[in-house]
Amino acid sequence: MLTTGFGYHTYEVRKQEAEARAARQQVLLALRIAGSKLRLAKQKVKKVEMGEATSENKL
Amino acid sequence: MKRILMVLLGLALAPAAFAQEIKLPVDLDKLAAKAAETTEVTLNGRTLQLAAKFMNDEGDAEARELVKKLKGIYVRSFEFDKEGEYSQGDVESIRSQLKSPVWEKVVNVRSKRDGENAEIYFKTDNTDRIAGLVIIAADPKELTIVHIDGPLDLSDLEKIGGDFGVPRVEARPAPRSAKPGAR
Q1: Of A29, A37, A58, which has the smallest distance from its Cβ to B41's Cβ?
Q2: Is B84 left (phi over 0), alpha (psi -120 to 50) or beta?
Q3: B130-139/B142-152 β-pairing
Q4: B85-110, pLDDT tens digit by residue?
Q5: 0.80 cut: is pTM over it?
Q6: Residue B9 and which of A14, A49, B55, B128 are 20 to 30 A apart at CA?
Q7: A19 occurs within a structural domain
Q8: Nearest to B109 among A22, A32, A41 (CB)
């Protein structure tokens, strides 16, 4: 009974660790995409300053 | 008495309306069927807290501190093989939710030359701090929507823009879809 309980606990811990690692990867992916789009917007704003596009920028 | 009750009800519902999240429409998911590559990330507060506990690698510290205070990160990105696979209506369904006074459009870039458009919206809370961020990046062959829900400051934005110094090999988009956390 005790062994089964310990086994279940270990299983749950490992499952949570796996979920957390997957979540970490997804967080890094999401931040990377957000970062690339922020940089893109920044580049576009710079282009606007050179008259290549239209924009409104309050930053 | 009835009028007082109505006023009280309105006051009770007001914060809920203010705090309302962006709904990424079902139609956007239909775009996945047309897309050559789809990236879908849905991370709610619980999943973010869980992830933060495991962000212990070198270079994770800044990202961890940001993630710990966020309520959610939602990304939908579609890459198409040809132009015209998504409509302005698809984008408008998101844009229509980003209205003043809760949301403010801070960047709006439209390029006629290459058709690359970028919009950035900030959500402000009662203290005028940034309480959320939405990025809509629409190219002829790519549509990306990023919603970061939670408090941010300008230094956070700089860190996001700088990728936190995280090596590029750490995470790559899944070929089709990745969905670790339910919203």
Answers
A1: A29
A2: left
A3: antiparallel
A4: 998 888 888 899 998 888 999 999 88
A5: no
A6: B128
A7: yes
A8: A41
